[in-house]
Amino acid sequence: MSDVQYYKRTINKEKIQSKILDDVRSLRVYLPSGYNELSSYPVIYCQDGEQFFNFGRIATHATRLILEEDLDPVIIVGVDVKLSKRTSEYAPEGERFEIYKAFFIQELLPFIEEKYPVRNHVSERIIAGDSLGGTVSLHIALDHPHLFQKVISLSGAFLDRTQARIELEGDLSWLELYMLIGLREDVVKTERDTFDFLQANRVTKEILLKRKTKLKYVEKDGEHLWGFWQNELDDILKYFLKS
Q1: Which of 17, 26, 85, 110 has its CA 20 to 30 A from that of 183?
Q2: Which CATH number characterizes residue 212's domain?
Q3: How much is the pTM?
Q4: What domain count does the chain have?
Q5: pLDDT in tens, 125-164
Q6: Distance of alpha carbon 65 from alpha carbon 71, whole angstroms
Q7: How does pLDDT run across 159-181, given as a tens digit for each residue?
């Protein structure tokens, strides 16, 4: 099949006025090839929406898999973030962390579910993020297991506060988590500090397994970059959505 077919899809640009964030948040909504508003679709919510679409090329991956490999058609919602506010909204110690999670549940989900034919059963929702985006995605699922039970983490920043949050749980057998981490992520420089994300993910994996999480844990050669994560999205999408 010609590559041009992979670009025959619709990506709507939306804006949501958030009272909780006191801000306007931009969204990107991918509608699969053959989209029919009378049908219904599973949905993936992605933190760092602009990066997931532009650098991760998630819409292109999904389209190819739908057309060629029987992936279930899916709606993908990318939630943009202002880089100046990213850490404060995505990091557990961030001053906007709690209100961002509230925005996600109280404003974003109703906005999408009222406007698009996404399935609203917990088994049909997936939440995804890279680095701190993986962190906030896991925290949202832990706080709202009736809404999110499937999580995609691309090199999640699962540091002390996240590990402590997981340890509050007794049984996580309801949680299905795909964790990807690169073997060259042992020294990752960020605006906050330098972290060993590889070791942090290994420690978090053990905490999760003790709580019976349904865990797909993948370590492979890679750095803390979209060049690594993008190449893994095919396998991740197939893990959750292959018929």
Answers
A1: 85
A2: 3.40.50.1820
A3: 0.95
A4: 1
A5: 999 999 999 999 999 999 999 999 999 999 999 999 999 9
A6: 5
A7: 999 999 999 999 999 999 999 99
